[in-house]
Amino acid sequence: MIIHPGKTIGVLGGGQLGRMFAHAAERLGFRVHIYEPEANGPAGEVSAMEVNRPYTDLVSLKAFAHTVDVLTYEFENIPTEPLGEIGHHAQLRPHWSVLETCQNRMREKNWLRKNAFPHVPFAEVEAGDDLAAAIRRMGLPCVVKTADFGYDGKGQIKVADEASLAKALEAFSKQRCVIEKFIDFKCELSVIVARSSIGEVKAFPVAENIHTRHILDFSIVPARVNAAVLADAEKLALAIVEKLDVVGLLAIELFLTDRGELLVNELAPRPHNSGHWTLDACVTSQFEQHVRAVCGLPLGDVSVVSPVVMVNILGDAWKWDNGYLAGDANWEAILADPRAKLHLYGKKEPRLGRKMGHFTVTAATADAALDAARALKAKL
Ligand code: AMP
C-alpha cells in the first residue's frame, strides 16, 4: 500500500529521531502522531498529536493505530508483543519481528551467525551459568554485554584483567549476557540502507565513526578507507537489509579490522545517529528517506553534497559547577562559523552523557572538516 502526502504517519517513540523524522514528514505534507510514554519529549513538541501512554497499554496502542495510516518506530526498546497485536489496525514498518531480532544482542548475533554474515565472535551466557568460566574460555580481552536493552555502551564492561573481571562478575552474574571478543579495530564504519515497501533499495554513503566512552562522538563522510572496503560495506549492508526483510531504514554498524575484514557490530532498524550528517550534506536526509521508504514512495538521491563531519553535543557541553548546571554552552561559536550547522533537540534538561543535539561542519575534504569540527567542539 502506498501512503501519499496528506496522510498520517504514527511514530512509536518520541525522542530526537522522532523529532527529525517529524520535520521531514511534515515538509512532505504528512501529519505525524507520536506515541511516547513520557510527556514533553522532543518529537511531540513538533508533531500534530502526541499520546503519552505506556508501550504495554494495548488499548491505547490500538486507539493510536486507528488515528494513523502507517506506523513506524524510532526507539528500539519497545516490547514487541503488543506490536504484533496492532498489525491489523495499521501496518507497522519495519515489521515488529525486525525489531524483535535487533533489540536483543543475543537474538541479533544468532541471526547474523545463522545467516552467515561476518560478526564479532561471541558466546552466550544464561543467567546462573558460570560467567567466569565462559569469560576464560573466550579469552581476554573481551567485552561482556547484557543481552537486552543495551545502547551507547550502557550495560557493557571490557574485561582485560582480574580487576575488570571481578567488576563484570558483580554486574552480570545474575543476567543473560553475551561475551564478545574485544576487537582491536582499525576504525568503525556504518551504513544506513533504505528499503521501501515496494522493494526499492538505496544505501547512503559509508560513514566513519569515532566513539568516545562508547558514545558516538564524530561521524566522518566520506569514510577515510579505500574503495574496496566501501564497496564491501555497501554490499554487506544490502544483503542484510534484504535478508532481514526490512521496510524502512536499517543502520549497520561495522568494525574494520587490521586485516581489512568487516565485522557487523550492531543493527538498528531506524534512523541512526551516524546518519545525522545527511541533513546538511546529502541530497536526501535519512529522515526523509525513512518517510519515503515506509510510505512506498520513490527513494531519494543519496549523493553527498560535500565532505562533512557530524559532532554529537552531550549535556557535558553545558557549563557545570560541582555537578550543578552553571550555564549554557557557547552556541555562538558554532552559529558564527559559516561552515557549521547547529541542531538542538529541545530537551528540557541537560545531563552529563545525554545527547542534546549535534552540529555538522562541511569542508573541501573530510580531514579539513574533522579539523574544523574538533576546533569548534573545543570552543563549545
Ligand atoms: P555497542 O553499544 O555494542 O554498539 O558498543 C558501543 C561501542 O563500544 C562500539 O561502537 C565500540 O566502539 C565499542 N565496542 C563494543 N563492542 C566492542 C568489541 N567487541 N570490541 C571492541 N570495541 C567494542
If you consult CATH, what is the topology of the largest domain? D-amino Acid Aminotransferase, Chain A, domain 1
The largest β sheet comes out as: 9 strands, antiparallel
Extended strand count: 19
Which residues sit in consecutive blocks of at least 5 with pLDDT less than 50? none
CATH superfamily of the largest domain: ATP-grasp fold, B domain
Radius of gyration: 21 Å
Tell me, rounded to a whole number, the average pLDDT: 96
Write the layout of secondary structure elements.
Blueprint: E1 8-12, H1 16-27, E2 31-35, E3 49-51, H2 58-66, E4 70-73, H3 81-85, H4 96-102, H5 105-114, E5 122-125, H6 131-138, E6 142-146, E7 156-159, H7 162-172, E8 177-181, E9 187-195, E10 201-203, E11 207-212, E12 215-221, H8 227-244, E13 248-256, E14 262-268, H9 278-281, H10 286-295, E15 308-314, E16 319-321, E17 324-327, H11 331-335, E18 340-344, E19 355-362, H12 366-379
Parallel strand pairs: 1-2, 1-4, 2-3
Antiparallel strand pairs: 5-8, 6-7, 6-8, 9-10, 9-11, 9-13, 11-12, 12-15, 13-14, 15-19, 16-17, 18-19
The structure holds adenosine monophosphate.
Adenosine monophosphate is lined by residues 120, 143, 150-151, 153, 180, 182-183, 188, 211, 214, 253, 265-266.
